């Protein structure tokens, strides 16, 4: 029997810790986060399919709209998070396939001009660190852990929530190890020539096309899971539930709300078609706070700082400072890069 008094999502955690103010703040951060993530996924999938088609048939914008429509269909078909298990499984398989192909390709074709950049072949430059890029890098890393925002919802939908700590630890270990491995290989192979997304660094051969198809399928299957998690919480807040509405009215309200949601995300993808810039900006503006600041603030408030040892309080303070640094400096760097890309696009 599940404890009905137990909080089930980020918004309820914010409510328990800081009342309505905490709930509203987390809603806003969560909304920005999901909008940016799914919008960025639409950009990635649309650009990938456009490149695979070599510009034939649909335009890049057309491919983005097709991908957004498929994601929308997945989102409106889900009524609860437990139904998303198959989508998550397919997403894992496709992403691992794309990673395997990408890493092998990077080892086979390092330091190569990929045919998409105006520069000729030249060895990549490697630096130990560049101070001006640290905040932007951390913002992008924050984006990589975007699933944190849906974890409370996933935990509450599990048949055996008591296994959550083991599931969380294993998943974070796999994700962290995978990202570190891919980042290391990518920087070794391409250095200062590295592009985002990663697969754009590779030669335009059959293997790269297969990897782009796989990663596109991954984000297409992952997007409904992320969007549905937020939509379910918003629908509960707006009383759009089967208990309060008839089946037809509940479906109609859910359809309208989620359709408007995807229209907004498709608008982001069409208006700001820069995958790396959007990824960094979302990571800086929302994920840095949801990952570093919000959990720590809620934990201290609910536990009581007098009941927390000084070593742990020091760690909490450092984590919060890191999140604030990423939010401010990462946002600044991401906005500057986005302005440069917009000017470059308008100049063409």
Automatic annotation (TrEMBL):
Q: Which UniProt keywords apply?
A: Amino-acid transport, Membrane, Transmembrane, Transmembrane helix, Transport
Does the record's keyword annotation contain Lipoprotein? no
Q: Does the keyword Transmembrane helix apply?
A: yes
Q: Where does the protein end up? A: Membrane
Return one GO MF term.
L-amino acid transmembrane transporter activity
Gene Ontology CC annotation, any one: vacuolar membrane
The organism sits in which domain of life? Eukaryota
Q: Where is the Amino acid transporter transmembrane domain?
A: 6-335
Question: Topologically, how does it sit relative to the membrane?
Answer: Multi-pass membrane protein
| Residue stretches spanning the membrane | 24-49, 61-78, 85-108, 133-154, 166-190, 210-234, 255-275, 281-300, 312-331
The UniProt similarity line reads: Belongs to the amino acid/polyamine transporter 2 family.
Q: What is this protein called?
A: Amino acid transporter transmembrane domain-containing protein
Which source organism? Coemansia spiralis
């Amino acid at each position: 029997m599940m404890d009905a008094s137990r909080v089930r999502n980020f918004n309820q955690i914010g409510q328990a810790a800081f009342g309505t103010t905490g709930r509203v703040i987390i809603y806003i951060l969560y909304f920005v986060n999901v909008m940016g993530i799914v919008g960025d996924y639409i950009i990635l999938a649309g650009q990938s399919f456009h490149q695979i088609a070599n510009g034939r048939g649909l335009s890049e914008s057309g491919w983005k709209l097709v991908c957004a429509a498929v994601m929308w269909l997945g989102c409106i078909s889900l009524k609860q998070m437990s139904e998303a298990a198959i989508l998550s499984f397919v997403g894992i398989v496709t992403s691992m396939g794309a990673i395997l192909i990408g890493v092998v390709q990077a080892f086979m074709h390092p330091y190569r001009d990929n045919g998409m950049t105006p520069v000729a072949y030249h060895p990549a430059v490697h630096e130990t660190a560049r101070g001006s890029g640290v905040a932007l890098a951390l913002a992008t890393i924050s984006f990589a852990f975007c699933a944190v925002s849906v974890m409370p919802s996933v935990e509450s939908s599990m048949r055996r929530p008591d296994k959550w700590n083991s599931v969380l630890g294993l998943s974070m270990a796999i994700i962290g190890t995978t990202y570190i491995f891919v980042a290391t290989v990518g920087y070794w192979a391409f250095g200062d020539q590295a592009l985002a997304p990663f697969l754009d660094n590779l030669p335009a051969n059959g293997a790269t096309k297969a990897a782009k198809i796989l990663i596109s399928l991954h984000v297409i299957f992952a997007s409904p899971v992320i969007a549905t998690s937020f939509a379910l919480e918003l629908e509960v807040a707006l009383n759009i539930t089967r208990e309060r509405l008839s089946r037809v009215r509940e479906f109609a309200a859910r359809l309208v709300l989620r359709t408007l949601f995807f229209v907004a995300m498709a608008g982001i993808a069409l208006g700001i078609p820069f995958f790396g810039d959007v990824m960094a900006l979302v990571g800086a503006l929302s994920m840095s706070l949801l990952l570093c600041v919000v959990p720590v603030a809620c934990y201290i408030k609910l536990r009581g700082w007098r009941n927390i040892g000084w070593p742990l309080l020091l760690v909490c303070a450092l984590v919060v400072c890191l999140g604030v640094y990423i939010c401010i400096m990462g946002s600044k760097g991401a906005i500057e890069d986005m302005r440069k890309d917009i000017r470059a696009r308008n100049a063409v």
